[in-house]
Amino acid sequence: MPLAGLLIAAAVLTALWLRVEVVQPETLTWACLADARPLWCGPRQLLLEAFNLGIFGGLALIVSVAALLVTHPLGRKLALAGLVLSIFAFALYNAGAAAPAAVFASLRLMRARG
């Protein structure tokens, strides 16, 4: 499970970096509103639309519920993926769906250990 811990830590750091360095800076917003837009404005806009539509939270919830339903060892991997997605969802303002997703993924991971 040490690899899973590293994956979760990497997800936390990446999600927080995206929030602080890509989503929140006002200077990036103004740069993307200019006539000569930088190339990174397109991917940034996709990221913004994804969290505005709740895609990260919804995907985390779907994967975590699937993990609960799958009794095969694949369920543990799905639960880990759901937990990582819920971390991204929490960091990118989708806490409504991320909270139950994190609970479901954690329940599945605890069931795998017990």
Structure commentary:
The chain is mainly alpha-helical. 82% of the residues lie in helices and 0% in strands. The chain is built from 6 helices and no strands. It has helices at 2-23, 26-33, 41-52, 55-69, 74-91, 95-113. Helix 1 (2-23) packs parallel to helix 5, helix 4 runs antiparallel to helix 5 and helix 5 runs antiparallel to helix 6 (95-113). The longest helix has 22 residues, at 2-23. 27% of the residues are buried.
How do the strands and helices of this protein lay out in sequence?
Blueprint: H1 2-23, H2 26-33, H3 41-52, H4 55-69, H5 74-91, H6 95-113
Low-confidence stretches: none
Span between N and C termini? 14 Å
Number of strands: 0
Oligomer: single chain
**Class by alpha and beta content:** mainly alpha
Please summarize the sheet with the most strands.
none
**Radius of gyration from CA coordinates:** 16 Å
Helix percentage? over 70%
The shape, in one word, is: elongated
Total number of helices: 6
